[in-house]
Design a protein that fits this description.
By secondary structure, the protein is an all-alpha fold. Helices cover 79% and strands 0% of the residues.
Length: 325
Amino acid sequence: MKRKQINKALKVLVTAVTLFLVIRMIDPVHLRQNIVLVPWWFYVVAISLTFFRTWMLSVRWRLLNSDLSGQISGWQYFRFSVIARLYDFIMPGALGGDIIKGGYVWHHVKEKKGENIISMLVDRLVGLVSMLSIGFIALLFARERLNIDTVSIVAVTAALVVVIFLLERKDFFLKEIKSIKRQGRIPAFIGKTADTLETSLSFYRKNRRRVFLAFCIALPVNIIPFLFYFLKVFLLQIDISLIHVVFVLAIASLISALPISLGGHGVRELSLVYLFGLFGVTTDQVITLVAVSYLQKIIFAATALLFLVDMEKIIRKFVKPISTS
C-alpha cells in the first residue's frame, strides 16, 4: 500500500512541476493574438472528426473481440468508446478511460467477461503498434534534420522485430503457467485467467485477417489527428512540414503514455515544446497549439456527457409497449 501511495505522490509531484513550468511559459498577450487565428469552423470540424474517429475505434475493438455472441451491440461499442475518451480527459492516469470502459463492459455482458476485457487490451496494443509504425516511418524521413545515423535506425528496427517476436511467443508463457497450474502451485483464478488468455490468443491466431483489418483501421485512426493537427499548424502560420509534425506527435504520444504523471498532463506539453523546438517552432506557437487542443477536448467532453445516458435502453423501453399495444 505504501508503494502505491508513493507512486501516486510522485505522479502528482511530476504533474504539478511540469504544469507549473508550462504555465510559466505562457505569454497571455501572444496567446490571445495567436488563438484568434483559428476560425470557429475549425472546432466544428474537429469535434465531428473526433466522433468519427471514435466510431472507427469502436469498429476496430469489435473486430478484435473474441466474443461473437453479440452481447455488445454496435451502438454500445460506440457509446463505451466515447465514454472512454471522455474519462481520458477528466481522469488521472493514461488508461483512465479504458478502466471506466472496462467497468461498463463488465457490468453490461453476462458471459465471457474475461474475453471482452482482453479484447480491450488487445485493441490498445494494436493501436500502440500502429502508432510506433507511423512514428518509425516519420523518423526515416526526419533523420537527416535530427542528425540520426543509420546505426540508430537499424537498432530501432531490431527492437521492433524483437517486440513482435515476443508478442508472437506469448503462448510459451501461457503454457508455463498452465503447467504450474496442473501442479497446483498457483491460485485457481490465475489458472482461469491463463485459460481465458489462451482462448483469446487461439481466436486471434485463427482469425489473423480480423487482426490485420483492425491494424488497417488503426492506421487512418492515428493518421487523421496528424493531418488535422497540421491544419491547425497551417492556420497558425507555423513553418514546419507535415512529416515533422507526425514525428513530433508520435513521439510525444509515446512519452505522455509513460506512467510518470497524471494522464500525461504536463509531460505531454513539455515534450511538445522540446520536440517542436527541434524544428524551429517557438514556445509561444507550441503553447497556442496546446491551448487550441485543450479547447477541442473541452468541447468534445461537454458533448460526450450525453453518452452517459443509455439511449438504446430508453428507446427499447419506449418502443416495447407500443409494439405490444
